[in-house]
């Protein structure tokens, strides 16, 4: 039970000024711009777009600036703004097989049709501080210039010159790269993906109440906007034995995909533009059953922007949540859709946790009086029992 707080309006308004002051920081330091955040903090923007359930890099950057880098608060801002936007309809299904590839790797096949595309990744960096980034804004090489193959790095550092990237034998990528699960599917070794009868419009959890057990489209929506850290922990739990899974990364691909929309007045698809997506398909072994032969099963993850950790976590938990479909026991948290969906939403979770900061004076006073009364009754009972002991002895 809450109580009204009177006389606090001036204090609340003052906190707005304090927040603005804290956000700005030292006035002697140049203020960071939204464009700088968008271009140089792209991975943080991608996370805000995912958890804020809105694809707009400029707004994600603005939200991060306004929230002082607090990703959950930034996602909250994005979701609040999203509710004010009109909805004109639904886009056509995107075709990630025709993605303009920026990065594409597989842990299951060394030689893929189209090849492995390393792209931008921290996977092979040494996790050493690059202190040059503190001194020279134009430096664009890692902490060890011998690794990047750029000679004379120290001289460039001293002169403050931007370093030109080394020449590579660049070749154009294939416009169509088959996905690894499709390759396995052609051999009949991968579970088929069959659309529901009639191919109904996917459920919209932002407009309709969720019931359990939840269908896969609902689960994937919830995870796409779920907290990355929470999903990462669940995915980790699956690998550690709390889900009976030994996954392989079938394929991760990052790149741009066209989005199309069919206006009613036109009747044909119009290209709205491109968005950056990360797709992960995880391959898991399935021993089979009486009706299904041994085969591989898949877990799927799709996220806005360059968000490999999020997409991988999604795919691990997606496969865990499909346990009932394969006759497997749902024993662990990652296999229980109600647990995953209700607790992965960081905006809802943060609201419920942080509301404890609001006044609960009446609740606490009630519990305080209850504890005092119980202690008093307990003391009286002990005193009566103590007095009765001598009488019993006589």
At a glance:
With 394 residues, this protein is of the alpha+beta class.
Structure description:
By secondary structure, the protein is of the alpha+beta class. The chain has three domains: 9-82, no CATH class; 96-117 and 173-196 and 203-343, no CATH class; 131-172, no CATH class. It is 41% helix and 12% strand. The chain has helices at 9-24, 34-40, 42-52, 57-66, 71-82, 132-135, 145-148, 153-159, 180-186, 216-224, 228-239, 308-321, 337-343, 346-354, 361-393, and strands spanning 100-105, 247-261, 270-286, 295-304. A four-stranded antiparallel beta sheet has the order 1-2-3-4. Strand 3 and strand 4 (295-304) form a beta hairpin. Helix 2 (34-40) crosses helix 4 (57-66), helix 3 crosses helix 4 (57-66) and helix 3 packs across helix 5. The protein is globular.
């Amino acid at each position: 039970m809450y109580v009204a707080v009177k006389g606090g309006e001036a204090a609340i308004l003052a906190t707005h000024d304090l927040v603005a002051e804290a956000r700005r920081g030292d006035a002697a330091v140049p203020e960071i711009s939204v464009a700088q955040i968008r271009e140089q903090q792209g991975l943080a923007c991608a996370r805000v777009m995912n958890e804020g359930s809105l694809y707009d890099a400029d707004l994600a950057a603005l939200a991060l600036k306004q929230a002082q880098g607090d990703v959950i608060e930034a996602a909250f801002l994005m979701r609040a703004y999203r509710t004010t936007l009109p909805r004109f309809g639904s886009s056509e299904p995107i075709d990630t097989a025709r993605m303009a590839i920026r990065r594409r790797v597989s842990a299951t096949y060394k030689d893929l049709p189209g090849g492995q595309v390393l792209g931008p990744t921290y996977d092979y960096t040494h996790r050493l501080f690059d202190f040059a980034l503190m001194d020279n804004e134009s430096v664009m090489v890692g902490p060890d210039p011998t690794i990047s193959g750029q000679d004379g790095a120290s001289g460039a550092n001293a002169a403050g010159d931007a370093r030109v990237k080394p020449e590579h034998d660049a070749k154009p990528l294939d416009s169509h790269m088959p996905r690894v699960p499709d390759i396995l599917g052609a051999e009949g070794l991968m579970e088929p993906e069959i659309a529901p009868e009639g191919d109904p419009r996917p459920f919209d959890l932002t407009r309709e109440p969720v019931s359990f057990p939840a269908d896969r489209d609902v689960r994937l929506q919830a995870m796409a906007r779920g907290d990355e850290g929470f999903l990462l922990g669940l995915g980790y739990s699956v690998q550690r034995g709390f889900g009976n899974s030994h996954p392989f990364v079938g394929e991760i691909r990052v790149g741009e995909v066209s989005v199309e929309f069919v206006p009613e007045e036109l009747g044909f698809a119009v290209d709205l533009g491109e968005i950056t997506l990360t797709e992960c398909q995880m391959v898991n072994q399935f021993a089979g059953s009486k009706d299904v032969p041994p085969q591989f099963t898949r877990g799927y993850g799709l996220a806005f922007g360059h968000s490999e950790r999020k997409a991988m976590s999604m795919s691990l938990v997606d496969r865990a949540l499909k346990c009932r479909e394969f006759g497997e026991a749902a024993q662990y948290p990652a296999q229980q859709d109600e647990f995953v969906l209700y607790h992965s939403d960081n905006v809802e979770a943060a609201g419920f946790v942080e509301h404890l900061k609001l006044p609960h004076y009446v609740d606490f006073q009630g519990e305080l009086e209850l504890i005092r009364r119980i202690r008093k009754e307990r003391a009286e009972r002990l005193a009566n029992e103590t007095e009765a002991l001598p009488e019993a002895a006589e």
